[in-house]
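Worked example

This section walks through a single chain of length 107. The input is the sequence exactly as stored; nothing has been trimmed or padded.
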Amino acid sequence: MKIEEAIEHCYSVAVGSGDECEECKRDHLQLADWLKELVAVKEFFKANNMEIVYDSDGAVKGVVPVETSMFDEEETYPNCTVQVLRNSVTGEESVGWFRNDADEAVL
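Given that input, the structure is written out below as tokens.
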């Protein structure tokens, strides 16, 4: 289930005419509000190049900046002039060419 679907479900329970008690409807309305707030916080972090860091138990450890211009993965091909740099956090890639001084090309 996506978070947008969870929000929609909570609102449908909160305003629905089903068998839910009034307390359940209030709880679902509160949950929908919290989920909307979570979406807004995540969008803010993303827009400001920040990310939430979790520990091994899934608890929030803190918020750290995301370095968007740093490439931490490199892929080169033997006897080729192409180099691919990749940022593992953002997925950003940069492709470059360099001089290949190999005597013979390997096919």
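What to look for: Residues 84 and 95 are 5 Å apart (CA to CA).
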